[in-house]
Design goal:
GO molecular function, one term (chains A, B): DNA-binding transcription factor activity
Oligomer: homodimer
Subunit structure (chains A, B): Homodimer.
Number of helices of chain A: 10
Largest interface: A-B, 55 and 55 residues
Number of domains of chain A: 2
CATH superfamily of the largest domain in chain A: NAD(P)-binding Rossmann-like Domain
Structural class of chain A: alpha/beta
Protein name (chains A, B): Redox-sensing transcriptional repressor Rex
Largest sheet of chain A: 7 strands, mixed
CATH class of the largest domain in chain A: Alpha Beta
Main location (chains A, B): cytoplasm
CATH topology of the largest domain in chain A: Rossmann fold
Subcellular location (chains A, B): Cytoplasm
Strand content of chain A: 15-25%
Chain lengths: ~210, ~210
């Protein structure tokens, strides 16, 4: 299936669709009408059809979408069946929390290594992995060819660590370090800004008080 | 300033504007043209004007926006100067990571308590607070009147903990528990889905390979 260029705002809805379809499957719901999907997702039915048309429409027939098929196709578009090898750099509280985040495995990401430059942490277990010395990361990457690095390092370290990882062949960076990394050629970056969501909560709370 | 009803998609851009203006101030940049703001934010200049018009337009004059003023006004709209009292429930790795998240304080949220039901954790320090027993949370809330609860509890516990906190008077829940909580009357909820962002990274990585 060859896709048209997908606008960022459409692409960003895909994980939500996927997550919602996942919930439906868990509830053993195998078929859903576009109006029901629309109601649950808070997106108009026409928006859903427009979104899905970017990917060939997913063949809605008669009384609705086939949930299993839709789930599988969106999962494939999101690259969830590629078994992407993933490493975590930074084994502090956040690194631990992310390593224990069971959804990553469920979403098809293979966590293959955790690194820290604190020698006191090296050798300890985190989830089912042993923390490795960041000094040895070049050899590890060269041998194991991971694609994705999760950065849970202090903000002062993020730029130099990211540059190092990119020079070693990492192609995707999930950055939790509160310092925005700029996109660059042949590397994809997602900067996570947790406090955006807290600010939204605060905004909604203010609106509630009005 | 009385606001028109602000669409969710506009409101969700406010934290990004705020964060970006924050960076400008750190770089001692005090004035920015709408085209420059547009370029940096990846939003059209006309979109920015439309967004700002919901809040009275922020009086762009001659050669651009006053960064300090814009920062302050958007911060006020986001409720960042209210010193909202905030508690964390769940003192595992994620709870620790969130307690140490310096941006919360910088954004005006006052962390006043951390709770866990694991007696082995009670009494330990986390950031500059001492972990309290979840059993005593009713008294704490009644005495201290926090508005916001950050939930970093296992997904199996999230619904019962949320119900309990709401019955005790908590008005806003920032939910990290991978189980979506539904909005309800007089309570605002932000469900954080970290893996959405990982799925987007995977999507962009796939597009890179094409």
């Amino acid at each position: 299936m060859k896709e048209r260029k997908v606008p960022d705002v459409v692409a960003r809805r895909l994980p939500r669709y996927y997550r919602y379809l996942d919930d439906l499957l868990k509830k053993q719901i195998y078929r859903i009408s576009s109006s029901e999907l629309s109601r649950k997702m808070g997106v108009t039915a026409s928006q859903i059809r427009q979104d899905f048309n970017f990917f060939g429409g997913f063949g809605q027939q008669g009384y609705g979408y086939n949930v299993e098929m839709l789930h599988k196709e969106i999962g494939a578009i999101l690259g969830l069946y590629s078994g992407r090898k993933t490493i975590i750099v930074g084994a502090g509280y956040l690194g631990h929390a992310l390593a224990n985040h069971t959804n990553f495995k469920k979403r098809g990401f293979m966590l293959v290594g955790v690194f820290d430059n604190d020698k006191a942490k090296v050798g300890r277990k985190i989830s089912d992995l042993t923390i490795s010395d960041y000094d040895g990361i070049a050899d590890f990457i060269s041998e194991n060819q991971p694609d994705i690095a999760i950065l849970a390092v202090p903000r002062t370290a993020v730029k130099s660590v990211a540059e190092n990882l990119i020079s070693l062949g990492i192609k995707a960076i999930w950055n939790f370090s509160y310092t925005e990394l700029d996109e660059q050629e042949n590397v994809v970056i997602e900067n996570v800004h947790l406090s955006d969501s807290l600010m939204m909560l605060s905004y909604k709370l203010n609106a509630l008080d009005d």
